[in-house]
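Reviewer comment 2.1 asked that we show a complete input and output for one of the modelled complexes. We chose the S-adenosylmethionine case, as it is the one discussed in the main text.
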Amino acid sequence: MLERKSVYRLLDFGAGIGRLATELAKESPWRLGANLDVHCWEPDPTRRGEMSRVLIDLGVKVTVIEDLSQVEAQSFDFSVLANVLHELPVPIAAEAISQAASLTRPTGEVAIVELCPLLKAEKFAVPYPEAIMKELLSSCNFAARSHSFSILGASAYAVLARRLHPDAGLSAEYVAERIQKTWARLLDDALSSYTSFQSLSGYHDFSVCLQDLTTIASITAHLLGRWPMPSDTAKDSKATPIDLKPPGC
Ligand SMILES: C[S@@+](CC[C@H](N)C(=O)[O-])C[C@H]1O[C@@H](n2cnc3c(N)ncnc32)[C@H](O)[C@@H]1O
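Response of the prediction step:
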């Protein structure tokens, strides 16, 4: 439980066009159980501009952060990464988790919201099952619990994570090592699932295989330095491919 405050500061990290803020604005503080002061960070400047326009048009009062480096450390009660991590290669996902953790106060929570399997086709994506996301966060020294519900055969889940050693810092390198191990396992699981099919009978088998293939292709592309694309890597020097060894190697 978070300590009782009159207003909770929430950071939507990777806010897209502000879907979370829009939905939260529809709820009363009574329904939410708190007054929220919502701040949205979206790194893509085009989307960020669109978000600002959409939120103004809808009359939703939030702060759109223009420069994350100007935001005070440990200044949020909650940071939410909704539908973000499955889209990110290892070093970028690690940086996002580490940044969100450093912007959240020591007794606050980082919430990871994801779908697994994904509901729509995505070219590069590594979906994380709920249990594996919880294990990943535990391995990064968070205490983690989760809530989930089923939607169209997928699990929509939120893992709520609180730092166990908030004073120790959480480096992106440390998180990257943990994600790297998690990816080795996800690759192994996807290969095992894919090869377990003798033939595909029906849509369900097809969609499972497609998800497996997306995971296999995305992790392999990352290993071979093709995701992020070299043109993206030039824009972001942190996005260098890393060595990923399968389990047991
Ligand atoms: C699928 S959208 C989800 C948007 C929003 N959270 C939602 O649920 O509607 C993923 C978002 O993550 C953003 N993103 C990409 N890289 C990011 C990073 N390193 N840190 C934070 N967000 C990132 C993308 O620009 C995109 O807007």
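The chain has eight helices and seven strands. We note this here for comparison with the apo prediction described in Section 3.2.
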